[in-house]
């Protein structure tokens, strides 16, 4: 039987741990909430495509953090 491609949060955490890529449920939920990993929400259930998780874990796009632009001196923060 082929592996599922679309998983729930708990299934995604379990698969990542089986593949040697430890990912906590907290970290996954945070990545989903911030939009770092694309997903679909059906009611209260998150559906996640496994290739998107692999790409995020492997930093396929180069990095998951945006670089800080160099500034000259102190920068103003709007509150």
Structure description:
The chain has 79 residues and is α+β, with helices and mostly antiparallel strands. The chain is built from three helices and three strands, in the order E-H-H-E-E-H. It has helices at 9-18, 25-34, 50-57; strands at residues 6-7, 40-42, 45-49. Strands 1-3-2 form a three-stranded antiparallel sheet. It is elongated and about 60 Å long.
The spatial strand order of the largest sheet comes to 1-3-2
Helix fraction?
25-40%
Give the mean pLDDT. Answer: 84
Q: Could you list the spans in which at least 5 consecutive residues all have pLDDT below 50?
A: none
Distance between termini? 54 Å
Shape designation: elongated
Number of helices, where a helix is a run of at least 4 consecutive DSSP H or I residues: 3
Report the structural category: alpha+beta
Find the count of extended strands (DSSP E, 2+ residues).
3
What is the CA-based Rg, rounded?
Answer: 16 Å
Largest sheet entry = 3 strands, antiparallel
Task: Characterize this entry briefly.
This protein is α+β, with helices and mostly antiparallel strands. It has helices at 9-18, 25-34, 50-57, and strands spanning 6-7, 40-42, 45-49. The protein is built from 3 helices and 3 strands; from the N terminus they run βααββα.
């Amino acid at each position: 039987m082929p592996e599922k491609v679309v998983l729930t949060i708990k299934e995604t955490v379990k698969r990542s741990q089986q593949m040697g890529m430890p990912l906590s449920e907290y970290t996954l939920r945070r990545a989903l909430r911030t939009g770092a990993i694309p997903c679909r929400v059906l009611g209260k259930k998150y559906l996640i495509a496994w290739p998107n998780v692999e790409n995020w874990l492997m930093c396929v796009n180069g990095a998951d953090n945006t670089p800080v632009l160099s500034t000259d001196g102190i920068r103003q923060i709007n509150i």
